[in-house]
Amino acid sequence: MDLRVSRARKATNAVMLGLSGLCTILVIGVLFFILGYLLWHGGKSLTPSFFTKLPKPSGETGGGMANAIVGSGKVLLLATSIGVPIGFLAGVFLAEFSGRAFAFTIRYVVDLLNGVPSIVVGIVAYALVVRPMKHFSAVAGGVALGIMMIPIAVRTTEEFLRAVPNSLREGAMALGATRAKTIFTVVVPAAISGLISGMMLNLARVAGETAPLLFTALGNMFWSHGWLQPIATLPVMVYNYAIAPEEDLHQQAWAAGFVLLSLVLAINLTARMIIARGAASSRR
Amino acid sequence: MATSQNQLAKEATTAIREGSGVQKAAATPKLYANNLNFYYGTFQALHSISLSIASHKITAFIGPSGCGKSTFLRTMNRMNETVRNTRVEGELLLDGQNIHDMDVTYVRRCVGMVFQKSNPFPKTIFDNVAYGLRVNGVRKSSVIEMAVERSLRHAALWNEVKDKLRKPASALSGGQQQRLCIARALAVEPEVLLLDEPCSALDPIATLKIEELLFQIKDITTIVIVTHNMQQAARLADYTGFFLLGKLIEFDDTRKIFQNPSKKETEDYVTGRFG
């Protein structure tokens, strides 16, 4: 064997290994830098009044984002109640009923929808809801985020239902259950932990969306009553405060970003716990 | 060969019509297949099968893998219809009525099925057995409770699970799970019970328990079992059918099939010369 070739190969190996290791550290580093930076600035600016008070008029310091926290909750609730049922039922159809060619088409379209820029979804919601109603509203924001939730809801449902062994479907149908009863009393319950956690991850994904809310929910410095008024949300607050000139508002934006991230992280962890528990119980 | 089977089936039906009731394999036919063909796409999996399944007897189907015995079993509760791109020709009569003219959920309630691999639902033991009753509209809890206990007793499982009915079915052993599936099938009081190699994944002791319980439940239902295990067919069955390449080669008294088969292929198979 030629010694020089072997030495060159070892050198290449060392360089590439070092390079890929470095990139891995970089990836983790970016994440921890963002987390740490947000924790530092957000944690510093976070006060109890952030959760209880309304934003102060410009020029005054202090105040909080109670309205935006509740607002984000309301818009996300609307989005979930629009996106999840539509996506879930479409996913059931895709997994249980559609033929192969048709399923391929639907899946392709759903993936396209998933790739639509969020600002475009915002424009669609603007045209569909804001224009006819003549004003910005929580409903418009909910519709925008709801549309954004559909593709993931469809694909999550399809994947988890497909993972249910066919023997369970056969077992149910052999007892005289109809297709629909089989699906809703055996297949969906068998996949339920995956479905719930998938939907939660879906929710966490849209919770931080800003662009589609800019011209649907708009924002509001006060409490928004009902569902038909413009409403404050955390991501839009972060956007508005971060580009404002006052330093105090920047601090508020950091705090809002911190709360938003904690929220998303909490949803994420809960979802993963549900998945882990579901996997453990199905192994038993 | 096909003609001789038709001949057999005709004799059988004639015997019933005349009420002589002595014709082999047809004392009281519960199910009667007449010239049944089955296709997966363009592949013909069953070739003009004709036979009678006797009421309150155990009928076994044997044959090498891929011979069509499971396919035939699955035509008897129209389970094959759930597979895309399949087609069935010919008649299958349940108590004289063509099952292809009946509502499919009704057929499956009358003709229960137990599968090769036990498939308990991810529910409690109780809910597994109650499932068939509930989807068929039984709501009264006293009725359901009685049926669950009765079915579990028939499946020789009651003593083992009576204290843990609310535990998940997945906590049971393999043999217990398969008996649970039998109990689940029995709960809707099927007239025929189809079993597709129910013991192939079980150890001999669990197998023995299932064979014993099948003997017991002959009184309440008609049993059709597909098995790879020839000893099992010999031990259990009153009648045995031998399938090869999608054709029913021979169908007769179990004793005759194993001791004095009339076809060369049957003899080769049961004596272990191939398969």
Layout of helices and strands, plus pairs?
The complex is a heterodimer of chains A (284) and B (275).
Chain A: H1 3-45, H2 48-52, H3 66-96, H4 100-115, H5 118-133, H6 138-162, H7 166-173, H8 179-190, H9 192-207, H10 211-214, H11 234-242, H12 247-283
Helix pairs in contact in A: 1-12, 3-6, 3-9, 4-6, 5-6, 6-9, 7-8, 9-12, 11-12
Chain B: H1 2-18, E1 29-40, E2 43-54, E3 58-62, H2 69-75, E4 86-94, E5 97-98, H3 104-110, E6 111-114, H4 125-135, H5 141-154, H6 158-161, H7 174-186, E7 192-196, H8 204-217, E8 222-226, H9 230-236, E9 239-244, E10 247-253, H10 254-259, H11 264-270
Parallel strand pairs in B: 3-8, 3-9, 6-7, 7-8
Antiparallel strand pairs in B: 1-2, 1-4, 4-5, 9-10
Entry summary:
The complex is a heterodimer of chains A (284) and B (275). By secondary structure, chain A is mainly α.
Index terms:
heterodimer, A: about 280 residues, mainly alpha, 12 helices, B: about 280 residues, alpha/beta, six-stranded mixed β-sheet, four-stranded antiparallel β-sheet, 11 helices, globular
Can you describe this structure?
The complex is a heterodimer of chains A (284) and B (275). Chain A has 284 residues and is mainly α. Chain A has twelve helices and no strands. In chain A, helix 3 runs parallel beside helix 6, helix 3 (66-96) crosses helix 9 (192-207) and helix 6 packs antiparallel against helix 9. The longest helix of chain A is centred in the N-terminal third of the chain and has 43 residues, at 3-45. Chain B is of the alpha/beta class and 275 residues long. In chain B, helix 4 (125-135) runs parallel beside helix 7 (174-186) and helix 5 (141-154) crosses helix 7 (174-186). In chain B, a hairpin with a 2-residue loop joins strand 4 and strand 5. The model of chain B is unreliable at 12-26 (pLDDT under 50). Chain B is built from eleven helices and ten strands. The longest helix of chain B has 17 residues, at 2-18. In chain B, the strands form two sheets. Chain B has a six-stranded mixed β-sheet, sandwiched between helices. A four-stranded antiparallel β-sheet of chain B has the order 2-1-4-5, sandwiched between helices. Chain B has helices at 2-18, 69-75, 104-110, 125-135, 141-154, 158-161, 174-186, 204-217, 230-236, 254-259, 264-270; strands at 29-40, 43-54, 58-62, 86-94, 97-98, 111-114, 192-196, 222-226, 239-244, 247-253. The chains are: A mainly alpha (284), B alpha/beta (275). At the A-B interface, helix 7 and helix 8 of A face helix 3, helix 4 and helix 7 of B.
